Every structure is written in structure tokens, then in C-alpha cells.
User: Which sequence fits this backbone?
């Protein structure tokens, strides 16, 4: 056998082994998905466009048994029976609460109804996933926290950014950092922008950088834009711009985090990148001595070309992980509740301080 033939056969064997390894990996992922069985029963309260677009697709992917859909009107409940033949539509919430087979309840109704629904569900011993906001103020939140403790159930609030992959990565080294966070949208006349919109960036700032120790608040004359200067635990400080005075066509969420070694940049839930710092030589910045490679390195980025789960916006935004975590807890599997009722207390207190701060 000449050398050329030997190398050809060796390469063929290597390719066959590689194909077998790839097939084993693909089969492992498939078997893991097919063998993950959720045995508890669940109910879903409120069927709006947010639920249809963001929550129910994840629930379907996770093979969650939605035994009930609860709607306000009996007419819509009958439509549910036709649309979801394996679920029961009802306008009787008590029917769900009295069903011993129901372990978890997803609540995504009108924000003003959340407090009453969560309270009844927890008192009935059900685990609850509730879209933000869970209630209207700190008084109601304290009430829900106490009920949750007494019921020995858990409540997870739909603050999906706290489950996003890039946040999981960032949280490891958020000590002695400074940051600038910008969250701007168009006009929001249909609800409370603080509890419906701004709760996301404020809660995420507390989740990432720690409890707020000091703050300063500035508002524009029309009170639609708020600037915050915050000092957190672990010597973290930052500024946040919150506004509904821009446009929905260029609504943006952007964060820059300055750590001792790196400068991170987060764009929406789409991309996480960083710029490594060059350091010093005899107190002289190295970037003044030699020309640095001044380029952000991409750590995570949603890829629109490859349509797999990890590139789906519901995954990168955190919707997938928050629902999966809630279901894992209900099923007795491992799961960490990153958005508990008690963890929202500092955010609610901060929101009330901002609301009570009048334009000078």
C-alpha cells in the first residue's frame, strides 16, 4: 500500500468516526428532549396577544399539559375548547383552584387583576407564574410575600431578562463596576410605564449590580424621561435613562458596563460583546505606547441564519428559561427562581420613590 492510499483510507476512517460522533450528539439532544416528561397539570389565565406570541409557544415546546385556559367570558372559553382540543376553556377560576391535579398556574391577564388572581392561587396552594407586574404597590407585594410563605408554594414573576443567557454570563463578575443603561420607547398611554415597562430595566439593574444603597433622580419637564444615578452594594455605581418620549420605531435597550479588566456592551437581548482593557506600564496606558486592537469581541450574538432554539428571540430574551425554570420547580426538578416576589421589593420601593419625585 503506497503512502497516498494509506492517507486516503486513514482520512476516510477519521471522517466515519467524526460522523458517528456527530450522530451520537444529535441523538443525545433528541432523546433528552423526548424523555423530559412533565407529569403535573397546569392552567393558563388570560389569553392576550403577549401570551399567544411569547408564552404559549414556549409552553408548547416544553410539552406542558395545559389542562385549563381561564378567560373572562364564557364565549371565549368555548372558542378555547375548539382551538385547544386537549385543554378545557372556562371562566370559573375556582374550578381550577379546586382541581388537585393542577400544580402550576400561569397568570397573564390585565395588570390590575394580577394581585387578586395571584393571591387566590397562592392561598389555594398552587405554584404561580405571573407576568409583570404582580401587583400595584409595595403594600400588595408585602401581602403576597407573606401569603407565599404561608402557602409553601412559589411565585415567579415574568421578568424574563433575568433568565437571558447574556445576563447569566455577566452576573459572574459584577463587583466594583460602573455602568450606563439606556431604555427608551415611544409614548405609552395604555398603562403605567413604570410597572409595565420600566420594571424590566430597574429589576435587571438590581439583579445584576445588587441592592440600591443611594440614588438621585432627575426628570424632564414633561416627566416622560427619568435619569437615575444609583449606588449599589459591592461598590457598583451606574446611570439609567428611562423614557417613553422617543419613538417605538427606534426603541432601544443598551447597556455599557465598565469592569476592572473589560468594557462590556449589551445591545437589546441580541448581542453581548466586550473590549479588553490594555493595562498600564509604569502608570502609562499601554494603548498610548502601542497601537491597540480597538475592537469589541463578540461573546454571544443571535444568529438569524441558523434557525435553532438558541437563536430564537424567545430564547435569547429569556422567555424560554423563565418558563422552563418555573416548570422544573413545579415538577420537583432543579430550578432557581431569579424573579421571586421578595426579590421585587427593592424595585417596587425604587419605583415609588421615582413616582413621588416631582419635577423641580
Assistant:
Amino acid at each position: 500500500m503506497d503512502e497516498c492510499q494509506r492517507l486516503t483510507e486513514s482520512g476516510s476512517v477519521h471522517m466515519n468516526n467524526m460522523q458517528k460522533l456527530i450522530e451520537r450528539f444529535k441523538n443525545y439532544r433528541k432523546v433528552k428532549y423526548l424523555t423530559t416528561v412533565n407529569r403535573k397539570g397546569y392552567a393558563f389565565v388570560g389569553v392576550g396577544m403577549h401570551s399567544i406570541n411569547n408564552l404559549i409557544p414556549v409552553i408548547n415546546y416544553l410539552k406542558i399539559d395545559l389542562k385549563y385556559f381561564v378567560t373572562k367570558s364564557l364565549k371565549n372559553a368555548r372558542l378555547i375548547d375548539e382551538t385547544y382540543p386537549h385543554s378545557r376553556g372556562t371562566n370559573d377560576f375556582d374550578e381550577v383552584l379546586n382541581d388537585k391535579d393542577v400544580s402550576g398556574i400561569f397568570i397573564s391577564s390585565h395588570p390590575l387583576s394580577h394581585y387578586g388572581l395571584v393571591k387566590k392561587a397562592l392561598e389555594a396552594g398552587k405554584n404561580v407564574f405571573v407576568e409583570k407586574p404582580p401587583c400595584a404597590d409595595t403594600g400588595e407585594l408585602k401581602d403576597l410575600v407573606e401569603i407565599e410563605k404561608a402557602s409553601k408554594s412559589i411565585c415567579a414573576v415574568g421578568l424574563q431578562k433575568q433568565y437571558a443567557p447574556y445576563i447569566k454570563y455577566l452576573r459572574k463578575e459584577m463587583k466594583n463596576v460602573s455602568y450606563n443603561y439606556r431604555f427608551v420607547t415611544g409614548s405609552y398611554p395604555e398603562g403605567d410605564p413604570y410597572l409595565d415597562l420600566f420594571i424590566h430595566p430597574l429589576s435587571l439593574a438590581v439583579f445584576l449590580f445588587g441592592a440600591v444603597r443611594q440614588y438621585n433622580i432627575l426628570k424632564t419637564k414633561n416627566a416622560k424621561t427619568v435619569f437615575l444615578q444609583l449606588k449599589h452594594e459591592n461598590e457598583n455605581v451606574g446611570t439609567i435613562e428611562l423614557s417613553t418620549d422617543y419613538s417605538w420605531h427606534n426603541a432601544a435597550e443598551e447597556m455599557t458596563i465598565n469592569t476592572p479588566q473589560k468594557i462590556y456592551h449589551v445591545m437589546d437581548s441580541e448581542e453581548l460583546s466586550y473590549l479588553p482593557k490594555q493595562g498600564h506600564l509604569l502608570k502609562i496606558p499601554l494603548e498610548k505606547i502601542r497601537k491597540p486592537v480597538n475592537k469589541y469581541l463578540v461573546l454571544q450574538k443571535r444568529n438569524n441564519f441558523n434557525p435553532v432554539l438558541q437563536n430564537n428571540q424567545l430564547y435569547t430574551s429569556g422567555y424560554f428559561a423563565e418558563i422552563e425554570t418555573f416548570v422544573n420547580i413545579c415538577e420537583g426538578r432543579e430550578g432557581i427562581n431569579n424573579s421571586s416576589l421578595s426579590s421585587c421589593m427593592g424595585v417596587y420601593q425604587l419605583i415609588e420613590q421615582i413616582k413621588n419625585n416631582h419635577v423641580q
Summary: Residues 79 and 172 are 47 Å apart (CA to CA).
